[in-house]
Specification:
Length: 416
């Protein structure tokens, strides 16, 4: 395994996962994470050369009039009313979409390369893979060499701050089967995905200008997924995202008032109450929070105090893979269409981990927030006037009913 700046593999990863870095034709970072024993041992090796003739990612571009203009770097503007930074990435308008009614491409850029296939703009150089990670070709945020990151002002007015959205966006492909579902992956493959989360968290945390690392998974056409393939993403913000900022304010205020850790006390309180616990194993507890917003919502917390994914030990990474697999399977079974087969649940799985530099990080705690806006087999939860206009949530169910349904789907105690 290659040496990396900040990532140190545990005993399992040293023996069973091989990380091979390379660079794509336009200069983006790319990593293979192999769990196939033949690749781990070095008997087989991956294709490292990207055969596409792509221009350098930050080279000048042609506008609609055919004129050469500088690379359209994403910028971000601060909302004076909320203080939130809003990234704006016009280049994303041209990204390929292969899922849903707005599909613009037939090929799948996340699939392994297929010799002879007419679509040859895929991101993976090899004809097969286990797990891969690479920088997004159409990023919402990216650091551009030589471009100033100083604060400027829209129309010269100090009310409206703007600056380069100098973050980083990566894609994690969970499996080469482009028609597969994350819920159907073996636990051993999800263990490699967990390693990918930890690997990227460790490495990116040492990159200049990054304040928060957010691994997440969007799944399902209804969520807005543009590429039908089992994959997730890692957004690396050059600021603290609004939801994290709100949580940090609450966790810090709680610590100042009680001396305790709010996230730990919430977990322990849920364990004491018992009613909303839906799964647990040696290292993790999953529960429906007492103030759940979504019609299906589960939070997953480590038993041990952990700030970030890269701090998890081998046992915790294995137990997480087991719990995540179980959660995805039970999520798919949650809504009954009448045939007893459940459905492919649209969901978002969002990792909340301590920010990198913010002094409040020590009073935070790693947690996964898993949710779906589906509220019945044939209904979704629309974020209408109150939710979208005022961020004042109105729930269509109760946390206890959500937990009761999960209890019907399997035992609370799972092997790990």
């Amino acid at each position: 395994m290659s040496d990396f700046v900040n990532y140190t593999p545990g005993e399992y990863a040293k023996e069973h996962i091989r990380i091979t870095p390379t660079t794509l034709a336009d200069g983006r970072d790319f990593f293979y994470l192999d769990d196939d024993p033949e690749y781990v041992s070095g008997v087989k090796t991956r294709e490292l050369k990207d055969p596409r003739q792509l221009p350098y990612r930050f080279s000048n571009q042609l506008n609609a009039a055919g004129e050469e203009v500088p690379y359209a770097a994403p910028e971000m503007r601060r909302d004076p009313l909320t203080g939130d930074w809003i990234p704006m990435a016009t280049a994303r308008m041209n990204r390929p979409i292969t899922a849903g009614p707005g599909a613009t491409a037939k090929g799948n850029p996340l699939a392994a390369r297929k010799p002879g296939d007419p679509y040859q703009d895929g991101e993976v150089p090899d004809t097969d893979y286990n797990v891969v990670v690479f920088e997004n070709r159409f990023p919402s945020m990216v650091r551009v060499p030589g471009r100033s990151e100083a604060v400027e002002y829209v129309n010269g007015n100090p009310l409206w701050e703007k600056k380069l959205a100098a973050g980083r966006c990566e894609v994690i492909c969970f499996d080469p089967d482009e028609n597969g579902l994350p819920a159907d992956l073996p636990v051993s493959r999800l263990r490699t995905v967990v390693e990918a989360w930890a690997f990227r968290t460790a490495e990116i945390s040492k990159m200049e200008g990054i304040e928060q690392i957010f691994p997440f998974e969007n799944h399902g056409q209804e969520i807005g997924v543009s590429l039908a393939h089992p994959h997730g993403q890692v957004y690396c913000y050059p600021f603290i995202a609004p939801k994290m900022e709100a949580e940090l304010k609450q966790t810090e205020a709680y610590h100042e008032k009680t001396g305790g850790n709010l996230l730990k006390d919430l977990m322990n309180s849920e364990i004491e109450a018992g009613e909303r616990i839906v799964m647990r194993n040696h290292s993790w507890v999953a529960y429906v929070p007492a103030a759940a917003r979504w019609p299906l919502e589960v939070h997953v917390a480590p038993v041990r105090d952990v700030l970030t994914l890269d701090e998890l030990n081998d046992q915790e990474r294995w137990d997480l893979a087991v719990m995540y697999s179980t959660l995805l399977k039970r999520g798919n079974a949650f809504f009954d269409k009448g045939d007893g087969k459940g459905m492919d649940l649209p969901y978002i799985a969002a990792w909340h981990q301590a920010p990198i530099h913010d002094k409040r990080r020590e009073n935070y705690r790693l947690n996964l927030q898993f949710f779906s806006f589906r509220r019945a087999a044939n209904k979704i939860k629309y974020l209408a006037g109150s939710e979208s206009g005022m961020a004042a949530w109105v729930s269509d169910t109760t946390p206890e009913l959500i937990a009761k349904r999960f209890h019907e789907l399997g035992p609370i105690d799972i092997e790990g």
